[in-house]
Design goal:
Blueprint (H helix, E strand, L loop, with lengths): L1 H16 L8 H9 L1 E2 L6 E3 L3 E6 L4 E6 L4 E5 L7 H4 L2 E3 L5 E3 L3 E6 L5 E7 L3 E5 L6
């Protein structure tokens, strides 16, 4: 009887958290909470203008552009393991990444493996208070 208590407890915990908040690392919490919209959202960005990306949680990616602007993409749905892995790939036949495109989480346990594929949202320009990066 005791051998089933731990597995059932773990299963209950996993089920309770399945629809919970996205995974947020402490270093990303302030950045996630402090961003302010800085103009209208856009549907596409030129790939050549993307300098860096920063995954904040299972639904939020900041695209840092070569001109210093930050475009926040909030996915329409949670993307499993995105916030934990903080790594993704994309494929497009155009020179632009758009809100109709998908990303694929890259899982790094025992090598690099493809994880969930998730749709992007619009790219919202954002600014941050001084000292937040």
């Amino acid at each position: 009887m005791r051998t089933w208590i731990l597995p059932l407890t773990l299963l209950a915990t996993a089920c309770a958290n399945a629809g919970g908040p996205p995974h947020v690392r402490p270093r990303n919490a302030e950045r996630l909470a402090s961003a302010q919209p800085a103009g209208p959202p856009v549907d596409c960005v030129d790939i050549i203008r993307i300098r860096n990306t920063r995954v904040l949680d299972d639904r939020t990616i900041d695209f840092e552009m070569t001109d210093g602007k930050v475009l926040r993409n909030t996915l329409p749905h949670q993307c499993p393991s995105l916030g934990f892995e903080e790594s993704f790939s994309y494929s497009t036949s155009l020179s632009r990444l758009c809100s109709v495109d998908t990303i694929t989480v890259l899982q790094q346990a025992g090598g690099i493996h493809r994880g969930a594929s998730c749709g992007l949202g619009q790219f919202q320009p954002v600014t941050f208070p001084p000292g937040v990066r």
